[in-house]
Amino acid sequence: MFNILHQSPLSKNLHRLFLLRSIAIVAQCILFALVYSIIELDVPWAKMTIVVVILTLLNFFTWVRLHHTFPVSNLELFAQLLIDIFALTALLYFAGGSTNPFISLYLLPLTIAAAILPWRYTWAIAGMTITCYTILLFEYIPLPHDHSDDHSAHLMEFNLHISGMWLTFVLSTLLIAWFVVKMSSSIRDRDKDLAQAREQALHNEQIIALGTLAAGAAHELGTPLSTMAVIAGELQQEYPQDEEFQNNIRILRNQIMHCKQTLTQLLAKAGQARTEDGNSQSVDYFLKQILDKWQLIRPSTKFSYQCDGVQPVPLIMNTQLLSQSILNLLNNAADASTNQVSIKSTWDQHTLNLEIHDDGEGLTGETVQRAGEAFFTSKAPGQGFGIGLFLANANIERFGGTVRLFNHPEGGACTHVTLPLIPNMT
């Protein structure tokens, strides 16, 4: 009826209150029918029926209200509980007042108020129920009573009263238990959401710290790279006849220039990443670009690539962060591989599945448990910083995807990446 998983806690509570009231209305209708047809008590049925009809209409308006997105307040829940108290008071007034065995149903709205509302509203509900109960001690329409000396008639009335008390206890127990169980479930869900939010905040702090360190390192590396470029240029001019030396210097200068361009792009794209988020392209071309770039970076790495997916090819949001994240995963596989990296991609209209399988030694138990943590690496000292997988995982999750590492049945480690896609309508 309602997508309660995406509602606020107060909206969920109003939804449960609506369900409880619906159960109460159905129970009242069944009870009225039984009493009217079997026991044949002479009570103001018309007036009591009007009260139930009014309560049903109010519950219908609550159902309509739950389909709107504006937030539920504590005051609204308080008003809803007051409506239930007034309706119960009216029914009890027409049916014996405080002598009615269903008088203890006053505890139900009080229990709900204590579970979901602030203490001020709870005490107000408590005061209202006490006031209504007290009024019903003196003001009510008595239930029909057999004034004869027939012992069996008096015994029957007593048994009816006891049965009513038992039914009230059963209903109150079941409804309160159901509501409290649902409240406990909501509290556990809230605690889980808070734990995830704290974990996400910690990841964001680590990413910000890494970004700050990267920016500082980019500035600090600029000067020594410029010095190296000047010295390399002077060396190139001093030995113009040595072809092998000139070739080595040319490679060195190209590498220095590449490092300087990378640092420049790092600083420039830090402020451009947000504007690039809107760029989309077909997923097959997106993967081809990444693999072409990876082949230039790691020319000595052998790999095989297979792709399969639906047509027309869906689109993916192409950003520098996402491309770099997949490159980090490919580099990790290349570092672990001894011979070849196997890459396989499949997609449907909504999801891309990318598998990167290396033929290395596989993952240890500690690596499986701690993979993705900041500054954790399984590589030898000096060969890794433990941030590539962490940043790749954080960025892919930010784009709505997942990263999973496991040992492949055929040996080696496998990285499985899922990413959301945009259906291609052309």
Automatic annotation (TrEMBL):
InterPro entries assigned to the protein according to its UniProt record, in alphabetical order: 2C_sensor_his_kinase (IPR050980), HATPase_C_sf (IPR036890), HATPase_dom (IPR003594), His_kinase_dom (IPR005467), HisK_dim/P_dom (IPR003661), HisK_dim/P_sf (IPR036097), Sig_transdc_His_kin-like_C (IPR004358)
Domain of life: Bacteria
Positions of the Histidine kinase domain: 216-423
Keyword list, A-Z: ATP-binding, Cell membrane, Kinase, Membrane, Nucleotide-binding, Phosphoprotein, Transferase, Transmembrane, Transmembrane helix
Membrane topology type: Multi-pass membrane protein
Subcellular location: Cell membrane
Gene Ontology molecular function: ATP binding; phosphorelay sensor kinase activity
An example Gene Ontology CC term for this record: plasma membrane
Key word Transmembrane present: yes
Keyword Transmembrane: yes
Membrane-crossing residue ranges in chain numbering: 18-39, 45-66, 78-96, 102-119, 124-143, 163-181
E.C. number: 2.7.13.3
Reaction(s) catalysed (UniProt annotation): ATP + protein L-histidine = ADP + protein N-phospho-L-histidine
Signal peptide interval: none
UniProt-recorded name of the protein: histidine kinase
Record organism: Nitrosomonas communis
